[in-house]
Design brief:
single chain; 682 residues; five-stranded antiparallel sheet
Amino acid sequence: MAHSIKRIRTLALVGQSGAGKTSLAEALLAKAGAIPAAGSVERGTTVGDYTPLEKQLQHSLKLAVASFDCQDTKIHLLDTPGYPDFLGHALPALAAVETAAVVINAQNGIEMMTGRFLQAAAKRGLDRLIVINKIDADNVDLEGLLERIQEAFGKECLPLNLPAGGRTKVSDCFFAPSGEADFSSVEEAHQKLIDQVVEVDEKLMAAYLEKGEVSPDELHEPLERALREGHLIPVVFVSAKTGAGIGELLDVIVKLLPNPTEGNPPSYTVTKAGNGSDSELQPVPDPGKHVLAHVFKIEIDPYIGRLAVFRVHQGRMTAGMQLYVGEGRKPIKPGHLYLLRGKTQTEVKEAIPGDICAIAKVDEIQFDHILHDSADDAHVHAKALELPTPVFGLAVQPKKRGDEQKVSDVLHKILAEDPCFRIEHNSQANETVMRGLGEMHLRTVLEKMSSQYKIELDTRPPSIAYRETIAARAEGHSRHKKQTGGAGQFGEVYLKIEPLPRGKGFEFVDSVKGGAIPNQFIPSVEKGVRAVLDHGFLAGYPLQDVRVTVYDGKSHPVDSKDVAFVSAGRKAFLDALAKARPIVLEPIVNVEITAPEERMGDIAGELSGHRGHIKGSDAPRPGLVQIKATAPLSELEHFPARLKSLTAGHGTYNLEFSHYEQAPPQLQQKLVAAHKPAVAEE
């Protein structure tokens, strides 16, 4: 791969599901001659959607890399899924590229994920390009769509080309000062582009104002600066289906988009040991420096095992060289480096800054690791990706007894591949809970487990983590006395309990005077008290926010033993709890919902109907509303499906634990009643 950094381009296709990103990738690969002909999503013949499940569902489920050559340039193209449920596979693409190409379906216009990806790309300092796809479709208003894009995302969104010939082709507006177009005019678009670009360079602007023109060569550097600073967000028109604008888009990628030396460098963090503060490090795209590469995708292939896909930011990586993985002290020597084109791997001898490659069969490599060739870089980490929190949960157990270990192994494989997937074990309810970004996310995991690993699971909603506490002070007493022929057991405990503020947990205080309970038995009393904490008093949930003070008791010089004080402590605590007005607490979560503005009333009604309280709302951009609210977690079991239905799939939400609050009387009675039969059966 003897190529120069200046001949490398990295580009991620992102955007709403249905925008045609995978078909666009196919059209670009075919036009560049990398594949004989464009594949079809419907027929399951695309480079990007190569897993059996993607072919069956006919949409992308994960990030796919397609590297190819065009006009003496190495292009690393990343195709991403567009459903909000698969953001964990789409957002990592932004950590690997200079340019985010946000693809818009000309028929549907600006959708929820359009703004989300533009915002995420801007936060990471990426160049942005807007690609309007499906311009050949019926009943599309391309002029109106361009106006709406400029309204929503700013006047810096300017067309690099315009549809022409009744949407059968496009006319370049950057290099060509005139030409035909279906709407607006090439001259006007050209003028606006030049005006926008020269604004970032005072010297060039002065020369331009004096001469009235500027050559394309003079524009290259200011154009790259305008893209870096977000002063220009180019808009291009294409049809992946008919091929209109595809050749022109390849020209834009090669001639106008940044190489790795022209984009904003990524931020790395150097974590200092002890209390030293972290510092920032910006890798330099120089092959002569030591290696720094970031792993942004892990794929576990049933045939070749673990595949780690990374972007080289600094240094030159060669097959067989010694590398360190993250903070690991033991080096690895990967025998092969691969370029990827979907599921096809082509071996290469080296990778330089800007290259996206893969290493196979190295189990130590995890998502987000930094690969480096110097042990001194062990504390270098990539800038954290802002990934959504997985809150949608399902409790799972194998249908077949004896499959527990197999299920655990497979879940951990999926965990390694998906940064927005979590596995929790609730020991109190003895259940394994998998969490994801939505119903579709977890349904896909279940389908993958079934089709690829032949594992079937039973699922149900996860248990809610209720807690118990007390509402009043009380005292408790217990005497434990046992005489069985030989040495007996004796211990007596007096204690008092009082509620603590929410979130304070548990406190145990020893205020015994004069050795009424010898010091060596105080830990036994605490052990007896703590035995009650885990199992609760009222409905079987852990107790919290309670202070227990042991203040008196009695012992026997011969019969007092640890076991006697464990029992006396436990019973004295239970005695006090019965008088301290025990109550059940329920978890309250912060809910943040982003949805189309016109659905605000419906969403507010839905929340208030489930004991939710709206705290405020915001408008992140025109046509969009962000609602902040709190609600009991127990009321939100069916909320994701309701939100999807109310917003036609355009609403997204985040949940975050806030605090515990007293559960309403009806709910408390229900939980207590459900616990009593279970206790009676024991």
